[in-house]
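Researcher: Please predict.
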Amino acid sequence: MIEGLVRADHALYRFERAVVAAVLGVMGLVVFLDVAHRVSTRSGSWLADPLVIAVVAAVVAVLGFRTRGASQSIVKGLVVGVGVAAAQWVFVKAVPNGLVWSQPMALGLTLWLGTIGASLAAHERRHLALDIGSKLWPESMVRTVAALGHACTAVFCVLVLGLAMRSVGEHFALWRETGGAAGNLSGASAVLFGTRVMIPTWLAALAIPYGMAMLAFRFSLEAVRVATGRIAVEVDELAQLGIQTEPKAEEAS
């Protein structure tokens, strides 16, 4: 059973890494587009002129193609310049008010990144830890003390999980009772196909229960694996922080 949980933990770890990469990509894209829209529509900005955009993009593209030794670099550069200017014009016309929801959405996603990052650190055994047990207790008790420490951490995570679920429930109740009119992230709204779409607060707050649940699961699993001797007890603080150059202790067979 323990080995099955370990495999599930590894699968969740790979999934979380993919989610982090995707979220970072989305955050970077929407914030960049919002800034580009603001600059492109600002009065007096040279970036508001599609002709200037086309010329600058064409020059940069030509230099890039020539650096790579591509043939017909001037023609390709002109095509890129015209394409960039056309894309900018279409983007500004399609979204006249800009992506005003990008920054509130990015803040909500940042909360998810923080909790998933904590979960990843727990999986990699690089979470912050105050290790004094290995210095105070006899060597024969180090494993037991370490397992108890992980178990106490898991209990604390479960307690925070309960509080977080209560908070999410309150946000969700407000959002449901008002038909989605309240309980949304401030400023995070967009009009899609004539319908105003809001980002519920409970959706962002759900990151905390998820993170606490994953931490509770991983610390509980860590406690069992340490207690049963499946993994070695890490007694080096530098290794716990992930900044030691030597390889981590190998898992016991």
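Model: The longest strand covers residues 184-192.
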